[in-house]
DNA sequence: GTGGTCTAGACCACT
DNA sequence: GTGGTCTAGACCACC
């Protein structure tokens, strides 16, 4: 795998969201987007752990959960790879649904802050540009 | 105290975000928006606990943290109220900044899902309308 | 009673020590020192409450406890007075023993702060002079 | 972690001062005295709880407060340690100031007991010797 | 009535 | 093993 784990994943160690959960969700998104295709090898636990300064057990736990969910398969002695039967490369509409919960949360916060839609949307567009 | 606690707060019990943290953040947003003004009485710990089906200690912990942060003040035997020196009713621009972290997270997820900005923004607008 | 309650008592509202307890202890000390003699009338609940900006119920509770302990007696319609059988005007040695707990606490704190006796004692002497 | 928690801390269960507050204040004093240095590991919550016969949550609350105040830092899964930026090993003069409130309280009580300075000071010196 | 403190015990996240 | 969160329930201090 020439992908550098540090480029693939972005971890917020300060967040209350457990690190292993952040990893699991990100792998699912990358697979859903087709950025990882069935048969692709995953970076090794050790590699990810070092790149993100995490405990290897934490990465291992994330991989195990992804295996249980059928997203990854374990190739003995060779590491993990994206499972053949992983539902990959979904349509944009399907992928957009995975974004819903976070957008709904943003909308809830915007309502409590009494911000009108225009302000919120233009701020969001600006942030999307910054990241591009 | 005619505020119905259940209407003020919305708790996601399934979230990894601790309940007391959700309460703290929501109170801060409501105060920032001016929906709660200095001197306003907060619903009692027991009232909120019952309305949201929480343990009173969980609510109490949130109130204590808000007191330490200077958002609420305790009136012995009378309950909590919004602190006089709480920075309330901020400008829309200031309030929008409180929304940044969540929008940044949404943008990160969108990028990993390889969704183009138009798709994401229109989905967001739709969700904002649903909630209105 | 010409004694101004505000001069007799000093209350630390911020302390974790309950206000009624502070009042009880102070009355006991004043009686032990003979500053209040049997038959002396106490300032009224209302007077103390107003002078110290306390809730009258709090003062009333302190007086009730002192009555139960036999330090004060209730004269119907006339207020409270120091009980005839209150053990007053004790010797300096007896009174000093009432000071022990607080001094022991100070000594414990000094030890944890690794302060040598000379430093502590000279600071204490200085504070005693300030208050004189 | 060879520190015996029971030797480090001394708790007055009868006091009106909440236990968690007593713990917080004692840790601050030990750090101020340099008895605990940045990087030193704290005894675990469970260890302290058992040694002092307290509920772990009570100890945990004290540790959390110390973390919020920047005295301790949490190392996920490894326990708490004295924060690097904790202001440690202060001068004797600075440490003596931390003792002021308690000495002022003692002076106030002495005045109400009408004890002269000599009596009070010699009693204090005697107590300091007892503890040595 | 109000909030604060403490206990006992369960489960979770992380190393 | 570590600390964090939550529940259920008790008692206290204050108004």
What brief labels describe this structure?
homotetramer; 132 residues; mainly alpha; Arc Repressor Mutant, subunit A; 2 domains; two-stranded antiparallel ribbon; DNA-binding
Structure overview:
The structure is a homotetramer of 132-residue chains. The mean pLDDT of chain A is 81. In chain A, strand 1 and strand 2 form a beta hairpin. Chain A is built from 6 helices and 2 strands. The first copy, chain A, is mostly helical and 132 residues long. Chain A is 57% helix and 6% strand. In chain A, strands 1-2 form a two-stranded antiparallel sheet. The first copy, chain A, has 2 domains: 2-87, Arc Repressor Mutant, subunit A; 92-131, no CATH class. Chain A is globular. At the A-B interface, helix 2, helix 5 and helix 6 of A face helix 2, helix 5 and helix 6 of B. Chain B binds a DNA duplex (15 and 15 nucleotides) through helix 4.
Distance between the termini of chain A: 24 Å
Structural class of chain A: mainly alpha
Which pair of chains has the greatest number of interface residues, and how are they split between the two chains?
Answer: A-B, 46 and 46 residues
Number of helical stretches of at least 4 residues of chain A: 6
- What is the overall silhouette of chain A? globular
Could you tell me the mean pLDDT of chain A? 81
The topology string of helices and strands of chain A comes to: HHHHEEHH
CATH level-four homologous superfamily name of the largest domain in chain A: Winged helix-like DNA-binding domain superfamily/Winged helix DNA-binding domain
CATH topology descriptor of the largest domain in chain A: Arc Repressor Mutant, subunit A
- Report the β-strand fraction of chain A as a percent range: 5-15%
Helix content of chain A: 55-70%
Radius of gyration of chain A: 17 Å
- Biggest β-sheet of chain A: count, sense, barrel? 2 strands, antiparallel
Second rung of CATH, namely the architecture of the largest domain in chain A: Orthogonal Bundle
Count the strands of chain A? 2
